[in-house]
Amino acid sequence: MPELPDLSAFSHNLQKKLKGKTIRNIEIHSAKKLNATHADFEKALKHQTFKKIVRDGKELYFTTKDGTVVALHLMLRGQLFVDDKEHKSAVVTITFDDDTKFTMADYQGLANIRLNPEEPDAPDALATSVTLSYFRDQLASTKATIKNFLLDQHNLRGIGNAYADEILWDARISPFSICSKIPEEQVEELYHSIRKVLEHAEKQILKSNPDIISGEVRDFMVIHNASKTESPDGAKIHQKVAGGRKTYYTDEQELFK
DNA sequence: TGGCATGTTGGCGA
DNA sequence: CTCGCCAACATGCC
């Protein structure tokens, strides 16, 4: 359930906790779609040292000193732990020379690990390569609704259901607007809202949960929040199920069709 | 108590 | 080819 800002906060804290530690052992307990064998993972990681831990899209990338990359995707229910315990539903456990254990667990079994993942075709939502003109051209060439566009990881990577609603409210654009019909001025609003909402959220999360490496923080959300009935400006929040997930929006958001 | 929440994949129909 | 929608995955939470 963690989304982009949560994952950014996790990477920040994992970097503090795990950077410089040397891997004694890696155990993969269960993983449905491994892109390498257990032996490959062991060979690539044993005795290696983590140098850098970053978020990329909805994944966490752990890079070792020799350039090996381990990618973790938490999917819906993945949880991370840094401690000395065994965890139920562990997908992978990495043990370091100082006996610290890093575990990714998921009772649903969907969280996954990949070794040296291929470079994705779509840019991260916050990448500097996503310029206003790039974004404008992308929107101009699609007839999908803007919410579906933001959620589709083949366009921009990292935005999930809850933040898509927050971003669209911030830009005052209806989630059901057709991408190619959104006027220039609102496209620019949206472009800035993506950065503003996601960066603000990460700051909020780190402020209230400075050591967070798992779970999610949602209490500051103004629209995608089941405990709220009105937007900050007093408009009634509507709910509609689209594509199997709930969309929260208000009449303050203009519909372009 | 029992829906609801979440992301991704693959398949179907318009 | 493009787009929307659905099921499946499994369980903690209110």
From TrEMBL:
Signal sequence segment: none
Q: Does the keyword DNA damage apply?
A: yes
Q: Which GO terms describe its molecular function?
A: damaged DNA binding; DNA-(apurinic or apyrimidinic site) endonuclease activity; lyase activity; oxidized purine nucleobase lesion DNA N-glycosylase activity; zinc ion binding
Outline the extent of the Formamidopyrimidine-DNA glycosylase catalytic domain.
2-103
**Entry keywords, A to Z:** DNA damage, DNA repair, DNA-binding, Glycosidase, Hydrolase, Lyase, Multifunctional enzyme
Task: Please tell me whether the keyword DNA damage is annotated for this protein.
Answer: yes
State the reactions this protein catalyses.
Hydrolysis of DNA containing ring-opened 7-methylguanine residues, releasing 2,6-diamino-4-hydroxy-5-(N-methyl)formamidopyrimidine
**Which PROSITE patterns does this UniProt record tie to the protein?**
FPG_CAT
Can you cite a GO biological process for this protein? base-excision repair
Q: Which family does it belong to?
A: Belongs to the FPG family.
Instruction: Provide the protein name.
Output: Fpg/Nei family DNA glycosylase
Q: From what organism does this protein derive?
A: Taibaiella soli
